Each structure stands twice: as C-alpha cells, then as structure tokens.
Amino acid sequence: MSIVIWIVISVLGTALGFFLGYLLHQKLGEARLAGAEKLAEKIVAEAQRESATYKKAAQVQAKEEWYRLKANFEKETQAKKGELKELEGRLVEREKQIDHKVDIVNRKEREVETREREIVAKERVLRAKDERLTTLIDEQNTKLEQIAGLTQEEAKKVLMQNLEVQARHEAAQLIKNIRDEAKENAEREAKQIIVQAIQRYAGEHTAETTVSVVPLASDEMKGRIIGREGRNIRAFEAATGVEVLIDDTPEAIVISAFDPVRREVARMAMERLVADGRIQPARIEEIIEKAKGEVDRSIKEAGESVALEVGVPGLHPEVIQLLGRLKYRTSYGQNVLQHSKEVAFLAATMAGELEMDQALAKRAGLLHDLGKAVDHSVEGTHSQIGMDLAKRFGENAVVVNAIGAHHEDIEAISPISVLVAAADAISGARPGARRESLEAYIKRLEKLEEAAYSFKGVSKAYAIQAGREVRIIVTPEEVNDIRTVDMANEIAQKIEGSLQYPGQIKVTVIRETRGIGYAK
C-alpha cells in the first residue's frame, strides 16, 4: 500500500514539475519575444536615421554635380561664343575683300568697254583705209604690168624669189634683236625686284645631314649600348626605326635614318640613356616614349613659332604640325623650314613691289613645301602632296595652285604662283644655300656637257659657274649665225626636259670665224 502511495506521489510530483517548467518556459519565451521586438524597433529606427543621412548626402552630391555640369556648360558656351565671334570677324573681313575685288572687276569692265568702243572706231577707220589702199595697189599693179611687160603672177613670182633669202635673214635678225631686247629688259626689271627683295630679307641658314653623332664619355659605353648578345641595340632600333652604327670611331656612335623626326627622337633618347647609364630594354622603351613626347611638343612649338614670325594667321592645327616637322627636314643640306620662311618673305616682298596681295603671297610661300613633311610616307611628288593637303585643310585656291605650280607640275593660275616659284628658286639657288656631294656635282656637270654634245656642229662644250652656265663653241662651217640662236634654245629645252637642277642654267652658243692667210 505504501509503495502505491509513493508511486502516486511520484507521478503527481513529476506532473507538477512538468507543469511548472512549462509555465516558466512560457514566461521566458514572452520575455525574449518582447526583447526581440524592442531590438527590431531599435534597428528600424537606426535604419531610418541612416537612410535620412544617406538621402541628404545624395542630395548634396547631386547638387554639386549639377553645379559642376552648369559651370562646364557655361564655359563651353563661352568658348563657342568666342569661336563664333572670331568666325564672324573672318567673314566680315572676307566680305570686305570680296567687295574690293568686285569694285576692281567693275572698274576693269568699264575700261574694257571703253577700249572696245575705241577698237570698233579704229576698225572702221582701218577698213576704209584698207579699201583705199587696195584700190591704189590695183592701179599700181596695172601700171607696172604695162611698163615691165610681165603679168601680175609672173612679177609676183620673181619678186618672191628675190625677197625670200633677204626675208629669212631679216626675220632671223629681227627675232634675235627682239629676244635680246626683251631679255635685257626682263633681266633688268627682275634683277631690280630680286635685289630689293633680298636686300630687305636675309635669312639664316642651317645645314643638317641624315646622320646624328652622339658623343660618349668612354668607349666602354659602346658595349653597354650593344648589351648582352645585342639585345639592347636591337630593342633600341626596333623602338625607334633607326640604325645605330657602332664602329672604331673613338667615344662616339652614329644614328642614321631617312626620317629626320625618328632620327631626332633616337638621338635625344640615346643621349639620355648614356647620361643615365641604365641601359636595358624596359628602360629604353620608357626613355624613347618620353623623347617622342618632347619632339612632338617641339614640332608643334616650331610650327606655331614660324607662323607667328612670318605673320600667317588662321592656319589649321594639322598644318601647323606639318610645318613643325619641316624643322627636321633638309633638302640639298638646306633646312626646309628655314627655306619656307625665306620663300614666304621673298614672295611677300616681291608682291609688295608689284602692288599685289602680300599676305596671300606670304601664306603661299610658307606652305609651298608642305608636302615634304610627309613625302617619305605618301606616294607622289611633294608639290602634289602639299597641294592635296592644302585642299583638305581649306586653304585658298591661289595658295593651293602656288603649292602645286612652284615646280611647274601644273599651270599657274595666278601671278602669286609665279612669285612663289621665283622666290623658291632664289632661296635654293643663292650661294651657300644648298650642298651636294662631289660625285653628284661631277655627274651633273657631265650630263650638261653631254646634252650639248648631242647636237650636230658642236666642237667644244664647257659647264662653268658651278653648273649654272654651259658655254658651247660650234664649228663655223657647219653652223651659221642664225642657227646659233636656235641651237641655244634647243639645248636649253633639252636640259629642262632631261635634267634636274636647282635654279636656272644659262646656255651660251659661240660661233667664231677665223680668217687665215699665209705669206710665202
């Protein structure tokens, strides 16, 4: 009985324990739930505060971006207004020039109309005189037939035979006199203009070659330049496109390249590598890139400087860049940029003497060799390349024609083109302006003499005045006085068609008659 009671008490105790545990667990769960709800409310409140903070920051950033965009827009608008104002000024100036040209054309039209009326009046008078003269000639012919006993046709035939030889001689003599007089007058006027132009401008002359010499502190540096198994020199030549010549010349190496800009980049980079002493492929590429940047800036500065010095405004940025490249280009040892500057000043000076447009002549003279900046990479003559470039960048039609016609590749359409060609010849042909190798010089003289010997009757031919003149002695039995003039012109035409030379060449044909007697 007591065991049963203990079992019942145990069961009741266990049930009571479970019940009390359940109540305690429920209370703890409610407390945790309340804590979680408070934590959630706190997190939500903090999230709301952070959201408000981010929202304000985003609004401030958006306002700053708006103000920045507004400032950029106003700046761009101001720049556009400046460009439009400059363009408007150009248009106004062009309109003034057009109005001036229209006035000149109208004045010339009135002069032409006046001359036409005068010519018509003179034609009427001449027609009346011609009719009267025809009547008189017919009357005289009738009288002559009666006196001479010959018909008009027979008399005409005899007269023509008698006058043919005399007419030929007189015509040749007249042509010679006219040519001599025209040549004398032209030379006198041309010399006066050229002397005045050269007197007012004397340009500097810079002679450069196709190689650059880099001095070294010691011959030990040559081995470092070559590098292990030649890796340094190969990397340098591959990056610059030049040839590095390392020979027995003490404390110096030679950089050779056809492209003068590449050669200048290579020279600058090599000097810096030698001064720095760290010569390795990675360092070589780094130094070359820096040298390229400096040379590009130098090219741009040179183009802007010469445009400012000559006084040619409004050039396209690409044209300025091409002009700057001419700083590193030479022709027969003459620096092309300095040559272009000389031609610009000479052409403008001659245009001023002739009362022509000096600004246009100066612009055409400065740009006449523009094609030489890229002629090593573009097919065609430098005058054709320069003409195409000038068209592309919107240059005046007269300037374009002057560029293409300065070597007579195309026909000149304006006197400005003729002046530019003359100024180009003056700048290139003046003593000391250009150099050529001894071998090329001798070959040119030999070709001049060969051109003279190809004509029948030539006894001796001498190229003198450094190839500026060819003096020819002919056999008097084979060539008469009239033929000497024609032969000089024919030889000059052959030289023009078969040889290339700077400036002009004078052809002088000499015929000497000797009277020889013997006393016995």
Quick recap:
With 520 residues, the chain is mainly alpha-helical. It has helices spanning 2-148, 152-200, 220-226, 231-240, 260-276, 281-310, 317-325, 336-353, 358-367, 382-392, 397-405, 415-429, 438-453, 481-498, and strands at residues 211-215, 243-245, 252-256, 330-331, 334-335, 458-464, 469-474, 506-511. The protein has a three-stranded antiparallel sheet with strand order 1-3-2, covered by helices on one side. A three-stranded mixed sheet has the order 6-7-8, with helices on one face.
Question: What does it look like?
Answer:
- A hairpin with a 2-residue loop joins strand 4 and strand 5.
- Helix 8 (336-353) runs antiparallel to helix 9.
- The chain starts with a helix and ends in a 9-residue tail after the last strand.
- It contains 14 helices and 8 strands.
- The protein is mostly helical and 520 residues long.
- The strands form 3 sheets. It has a 3-stranded antiparallel sheet with strand order 1-3-2, with helices on one face. A 3-stranded mixed sheet has the order 6-7-8, with helices on one face.
- The radius of gyration is 46 Å and the shape is elongated.
